[in-house]
Amino acid sequence: MSAHHTVISPGKAAEDAAPHAKSGTGGPAGVEIVNFPQILYTRSFGDPDMLFVPLLDATREAYDMVERLSSHGENRANAVMLSGMHLASALLRDSSFSLIARGQSHEHVYTVDLGAGTLHVNTRLYASVSRRTSLFKVEIVGKIAGGPFVVRNPMQGSIITQVEEEKLRQPGYFASTLAQECLRVQIEKERVGRIEETIGPALHEEVRFTIAVGGNKVPVALRQKEAGAPWEIIDGRIQEWVGTLTPEVEKNLKSVTNFIKELFAQK
Amino acid sequence: MSRQDEQEDERDSRMATVHLHERREARYSVPIAIEVSGISREGQPFHERTFTLDVSQWGCGFKIPVELKKDDIVALRVVPASSETAPLTMSSAMSSTKSLFQVVRVTPEDDGWVVGAWKMDDEKVWSAETLASLEREQSTGTEQAQRDTDS
Predict the structure, then answer these.
(1) Which residue of B has its CA nearest to A86?
(2) What is the domain partition of chain B in residue ranges?
(3) A89–B120 CB contact, under 8 Å
(4) pLDDT per position as a tens digit, A111-160
(5) Class of domain B20-150
(6) What is the ipTM of this complex?
(7) Are B62 and B34 within 8 A, CB to CB?
């Protein structure tokens, strides 16, 4: 599709996403084009499962236009402005978009920076795993030109995951897969946190690892309270004692820990 | 449609027409030299010099040879004063920085399109005082020319 025929059709994306998306409504969103005086607002198609892909495509065309105009001698700042205007015009051709003043908050915010070549999405995801439902505020950042998008926790700045663009193009990806991934990462962090909380001066030695049991990853800790004491096996998910190592297994563990101790001593 | 939907639609329509009330304001038939920039239907950049047909604090009308459509965004700047390009005195009160305008109406004419556009930012492209004085200046000039013709 050529640059001058850019058409944003979030409604089409919504139809594609509908069988998979958990929510039937798209919700409101603001699309901010950096250095543009107003925000492009949509009340119905703001959900990333509806808007992300068409907006990324339109943004990419606008970004290509920046490069094309620059290579034809247009001042770079001017090229960015003209391409931004073109993108805004393309969005406004979709009747679900209108211009509004800056300064209002929206559930989903898309920030297009044609100068830096980046697309930021600040959004909320809902996920349910094991009867637990959570709301996540996430920031999804990537290069308009291509490459993976990084999903961050905007409060902590920590990276939750990195996603290839083709995955983001899958219908309902944000509401289903990405939301579940955010929850899985959070639960994992909480598990690790719980294990870390229990490490105290009372422990003599500890070994932590994760094992695959019936398709699930289970965090496990082996703890020895004092030298010569038996090694306890702790279920990291619930911090529960599940048994002790037999002397034979303990011997194997000792050979592993001794090997590592020697390695550290040499260093 | 539920009452809530109707209220939201009403709110949206209000939000979509920011500054609309401010557009019901004095409009002056003043030919100011401007440069209009944008992207054509063919995806090519254009920078067209033309004159305003009328001007208000938040909008303007002009004729342009490039086809524009409703909701296109264009950049507009006042061309600095020079005797060749501007028939009226362009005071220094007028900004020569670019300001963005949204096209609100387009009427085809034989040799171009007459475009009505409204300003998206609060750049003072032209001040109301300047516009009023320019129109006074213009009408005084017309009256003088009429008197000269009569005599």
Answers:
(1) B39
(2) 20-150
(3) no
(4) 999 999 999 999 988 887 667 778 888 999 999 999 999 998 888 777 88
(5) mainly beta
(6) 0.70
(7) yes
